[in-house]
TrEMBL record, chain A:
GO terms for molecular function: ATP binding; ATP hydrolysis activity. It comes from Paracoccus alkanivorans. Residues 13-248 form the ABC transporter domain. PANTHER family: CARBOHYDRATE TRANSPORT ATP-BINDING PROTEIN MG119-RELATED, SUGAR ABC TRANSPORTER ATP-BINDING PROTEIN. The keyword Plastid does not apply. The keyword Hydrolase does not apply. Keywords: ATP-binding, Nucleotide-binding. This is Sugar ABC transporter ATP-binding protein. It comes from the Bacteria.
Automatic annotation (TrEMBL), chain B:
This is Xylose transport system permease protein XylH. The chain crosses the membrane at residues 39-62, 68-91, 122-142, 154-174, 194-215, 227-249, 255-273, 304-325, 362-379. It comes from Paracoccus alkanivorans. One of its GO terms (cellular component) is plasma membrane. PANTHER family: ABC TRANSPORTER PERMEASE PROTEIN YPHD-RELATED-RELATED, XYLOSE TRANSPORT SYSTEM PERMEASE PROTEIN XYLH. The lineage of its organism: Bacteria, Pseudomonadati, Pseudomonadota, Alphaproteobacteria, Rhodobacterales. It is a multi-pass membrane protein. It comes from the Bacteria.
Length: 266, 414
């Protein structure tokens, strides 16, 4: 099990022994995780492995049942999403968490409007367009309510929102799940740009290609526990084995069968 | 903008969107909105015209200037209460105790002022403070225990009514001094004609000035503009309508100060809801409270502000209605006050489901409600029939709200 020694210095975020229980379900057990400045950490695992729960815990949405979280070397209590945002932890949630009755601009700036006593709509709209263009967004109008946007457009809005506050760490929970080819490429570019600016990125994805393309380290969760840290060059088989918990699994069996068929046909 | 100006405006680069420019474009966009179920103020406007035609044909006195002046006097108190209701409805919550709250406020003010000899402003302040306190209690129940506002305010309805009866207990009602400034404000004080005309022109001036500034800033930022003609046409229509209304009222007694106070509150609330961070947060919490929380909004504080505003405005409504009736009685705030205030907000276009509405709906809705009640009174119909008809109007308003919501959902407008 390879551990990371690639990154140097103090981690921005350091988790030790973080656990989260939902009643009888232990969604997270004893999770350790370090995120450094200027690195992309991919968080992978099967459905229900606890990835979203971990991200929500760091976003202040859920409170951990046990364990400690340090931010820039200081122990912190993330008791509300506001606290996490103020520290500089921005999140794109899997379920996006947008207000359907508000337009794109209002959603982007929600909670952080410019000029709170006399909203600066013009400035907000300009920044909205610039941000969306950076993401190669295909959004016809930023003055339409979110309800009228397609799934991928909503996802772009959610990603744009997380970038707005210049966070120290940005966590993306399956940000490319609904995106088109160009938009996915833009998001991957963007992740690299954010990293190069010296911010930390946590990327959750089921797409190993995307993960391999941008991640510096791959952290595997399995049934709510740490199941290894790998670097980006690790082979697909090894990752799949860590994710599913065995080298003999449905993915490898399927691949073997495919290979066999190809052998027969040739 | 630091980049060089592109030939197309920043928000006009997507070729799929039809961009409505000029007056024809504005009309076309308006029709689209209506069709998709975004009815806005249309049902109210239609309703008002309908009501006016029916009642005038039954009794021409209805449209007499002085009857309309009376109508405006009556509208102010319920209107204030309704303005508070808009706040809680925007969050998808409800306050059923507004009637009792207004009754308690009027009793409290009567007792403090007439019986205990406190100066009027202090008595009013005490009544408003009582309102704020009630709202604080409801919001705490909701925030701490997750107690639905439907239940807590239903309990509050009884509790506050009890306090009102207790305060007035021995006497049953307290008469307020007819010559006092408060009662004169509630019954006879009318704006001088010049002031009412000035106030009729003011909105147009403000809209044009702010509109021109916004247009200049948008042009500088390379954003598109709907066009000067639309702005001028809208403002012109509004100003002409206001001037006609005011000059018609001035052929009678004129525009009551009390109604002016109510409109001022509506304007302030409208600004707060549409142009401040607090207002944005109100809509966000009403639309999706979990999303609002994740955006860093303090949802509990927003709820607290809404419930406190609602009860305080209900208390103010109680004070105004005491001034209007020159008495604080056990009947104050009972009967149809509750229903009327909630109905006014919904009829005016504020959704019961949260996240949609505006301060103007209190103004428009209360005009509809008062027009109905005034017209039926002119026809000498008993209150039994009045209740039934108002109930039916509320039912229609809620049906329109639900249908519009379904239509919006299918047109992707939430
Ligand atoms: N709010 C909740 N209440 C109860 N149980 C929950 C809650 N949220 C998550 N869980 C449970 O925690 C476990 C982990 O869920 P989580 O959403 O973190 O999975 P995930 O790794 O993000 O999966 P996916 O890849 O499907 O998004 C699941 O068993 C889920 O049932
Ligand atoms: Mg998930």
């Amino acid at each position: 099990m390879g551990s990371s020694q690639s990154t140097t210095g103090e981690p921005i975020l350091r988790l030790r022994g973080v656990s989260k229980q939902f009643g009888a379900v232990s969604a997270l057990t004893d999770i350790d995780l370090d995120i450094h400045a200027g690195e992309v950490v991919a968080l992978v695992g099967d459905n229900g492995a606890g990835k979203s729960t971990l991200v929500k815990t760091l976003a202040g949405v859920h409170q951990p049942t046990a364990g400690s979280i340090e931010f820039m070397g200081r122990p912190v209590t993330l008791d509300s999403p506001g606290t996490a945002l103020d520290l500089g932890i921005a999140t794109v949630f899997q379920d996006l968490a947008l207000c359907e009755n508000l337009d794109v601009v209002a959603n982007l700036f929600l909670g952080h409007e410019l000029a709170p006593w006399a909203l600066d709509e013009v400035q907000m709209e300009v920044r909205a367009w610039t941000l969306l263009q950076e993401l190669a967004a295909r959004i016809p109008s930023v003055r339409e309510p979110i309800a009228s946007l397609s799934g991928g457009q909503r996802q772009t809005v959610a990603i744009a929102r997380s970038l707005l506050l210049e966070p120290k760490i940005i966590m993306l929970d399956e940000p490319t799940a609904a995106l088109g080819v160009a938009q996915t490429a833009e998001v991957l570019n963007l992740i690299e740009r954010v990293r190069d600016r010296g911010h930390g990125v946590v990327l959750i994805s089921h797409n190993m290609e995307d993960v391999r393309a941008v991640a510096d380290r791959v952290v595997v969760l399995r049934l709510g526990r740490n199941n290894g840290v790998f670097d980006a060059n690790t082979s697909n088989e090894e990752l799949v084995a860590a994710i599913t918990g065995a080298s003999e699994n449905s993915v490898s069996r399927r691949r073997a069968r495919k290979l066999e068929e190809m052998d027969h046909s040739s | 903008m630091t980049e060089e100006k592109s030939p197309t405006a920043l928000d006009r680069s997507d070729s799929r969107v039809r961009h409505d420019e000029g007056i024809i474009g504005a009309v076309r966009a308006f029709m689209d909105r209506i069709r998709s179920g975004d009815l806005g103020m249309l049902p109210v406007a239609v309703g008002l015209v309908l009501i006016a035609t029916v009642f005038t044909s039954l009794n021409p006195v209805f449209l007499a200037p002085n009857n309309l002046v009376n109508l405006l006097f009556d509208a102010a108190a319920v209107g204030c209460i309704s303005l508070g209701v808009v706040c809680v409805l925007l969050l998808g919550q409800i306050d059923l105790s507004i009637g009792s709250m207004s009754g308690l406020a009027s009793a409290l003010m009567g007792v403090l002022w007439v019986k205990m000899g406190l100066p009027v402003p202090l008595a009013i302040l005490a009544a408003l403070a009582a309102g704020a306190l009630a709202g604080l209690v409801y919001a705490s129940f909701l925030n701490r225990f997750g107690m639905p506002s439907f239940v807590s305010t239903l309990a509050g309805l009884l509790a506050l009514l009890g306090m009102q009866l207790y305060l007035l207990g021995s006497t049953g009602s307290i008469n307020l001094n007819y010559n006092s400034a408060l009662v004169r404000f509630g019954q006879i004080l009318i704006m001088p004609a010049w002031l009412s005309y000035l106030l009729a022109v003011l909105p147009g001036v403000v809209i044009v000035v702010t509109g021109l500034r916004a247009m200049r800033r948008r042009a500088e930022a390379n954003l598109s503009n709907p066009g000067l003609s639309v702005l001028l046409a809208k403002t012109g229509l509004l100003t002409v309508a206001l001037l006609i209304a005011v000059s018609y009222l001035n052929t009678g007694r004129g525009v009551p100060y009390m109604f002016g106070l109510f409109v001022l509150l509506v304007v302030i609330m409208n600004y707060a809801l549409t142009r401040t961070k607090w207002g944005r947060s109100m809509f966000a919490v009403g639309g999706n409270s979990e999303a609002a929380r994740r955006a860093g909004i303090n949802v509990n504080r927003i709820r607290l502000s809404a419930f406190m505003l609602c009860s305080t405005l209900a208390a103010l409504g109680g004070v105004l209605s005491a001034a209007r009736l020159a008495s604080s009685s056990q009947q104050a705030g009972t009967g149809d006050v509750n229903l009327n205030a909630i109905a006014a907000a919904v009829i005016g276009g504020t959704s019961l489901f949260g996240g949609r509405g505006s301060a103007w709906s209190a103004l428009l809705g209360v005009l509809v409600i008062q027009a109905i009640s005034n017209g039926l009174t002119l026809l000498n119909l008993s209150s039994s029939l009045r209740y039934m008809i108002t109930g039916a109007v509320l039912a229609i308003a809620v049906i329109v709200d639900s249908l519009a919501r379904q239509s919006r959902a299918s047109h992707g407008r939430a």
